[in-house]
Specification:
By secondary structure, this protein is of the alpha/beta class. It has one domain: Aldolase class I (TIM Barrel, Alpha-Beta Barrel). The protein is 38% helix and 15% strand. An eight-stranded parallel β-barrel has the order 1-2-3-4-5-6-7-8, surrounded by five helices. α8 links the parallel β6 and β7. The longest helix is centred in the C-terminal third of the chain and has 19 residues. Bound molecules: phosphoenolpyruvate. This is Triosephosphate isomerase.
């Protein structure tokens, strides 16, 4: 099967005010000057307050933007929430759903994540659906089973397989500087691919499966080269243009 076009997405989390857009602009310049390896796609997911201004600063660099969450409904009485249509209106192409921080901080279940992903697809946004085991689940040998259950529950039926992205993010690797071994990453990404093919048939091969969790310039090349790793979701190292560009360059 053809390898999908790789994607490197940056998750700024709750970091970044207007001044931080200088980094987005610097990234746009680096990408415009040097290009992206393997024809990959690049996206930045800033706090929603920066989406429109970031879209303007990125200009025609080809770098896409994304939200970090969306509500399952299209509009209505949901104070503090943001709909997929609003992200789209702000220029977004992607939206992260079911990040482990949202699952933990806001009690998001697989079902809630699935509804958010469905709302994104219905709005013509590409959801980046996050899954990943905790440290105790890894230690007790349940990691693959946990992730399969999250995949089954968090991915809506009837989605175009090119229009959905999975991010495997072991919770214990996020922001800790720890990463699984390359063999463990390969095992998990293969298991995810198998599950997607079981569910979607050949189309399962076109779903991009990103790795996330302490990706850095120093480990990106070896991790991004693992089979079935179709790019990365990058937290801390996406905040500075030079670090993020080093990761993009490792594709
Ligand atoms: C993330 O939270 O999506 C992430 C991968 O964070 P970090 O790169 O900082 O571990």
């Amino acid at each position: 099967p053809l390898r999908p076009i790789p994607l490197i997405a940056g998750n700024w989390k709750m970091n970044g005010v207007t001044a931080a857009l200088a980094e987005a602009e610097a990234l746009a310049t680096l990408v415009a000057t040097h290009g992206v390896a393997r024809g990959g796609e690049v996206a930045l997911c800033p706090p929603a307050t920066l989406l429109m201004a970031m879209r303007e600063r990125l200009g025609r660099s080809g770098i896409a933007t994304g939200g970090q969450d969306c509500h399952a409904r299209a509009s209505g009485a949901h104070t503090g929430d943001i709909s997929a249509a609003m992200l789209k209106d702000a220029g977004a192409r992607f939206v992260i759903v079911g990040h482990s921080e949202r699952r933990a901080d806001h009690g998001e279940t697989d079902e809630a994540v699935r509804e958010k992903a469905a709302a994104a697809v219905a709005t013509d946004l590409i959801p980046i659906v996050c899954v990943g085991e905790t440290e105790s689940q890894r230690l007790s040998g349940e990691a693959v089973r946990v992730v399969e259950r999250q995949l089954d529950g968090s991915i809506p039926d009837g989605v175009p397989t090119e229009g959905i992205v999975i991010a495997y993010e072991p919770v214990w690797a996020i922001g800790t500087g720890l990463t699984p071994t390359l063999a463990d990453i390969a095992e998990m990404h293969e298991a995810i691919r198998r599950r997607l093919v079981e569910r979607f048939g050949e189309g399962g091969h076109s779903v991009r499966i990103l790795y996330g969790g302490s990706l850095k310039p120093g480990n990106a090349r070896e991790i991004l080269a693992v089979d079935n790793v179709d790019g990365g979701l990058v937290g801390g190292a996406s905040l500075l243009a030079k670090d993020f560009f080093a990761i993009i360059s490792a594709l």
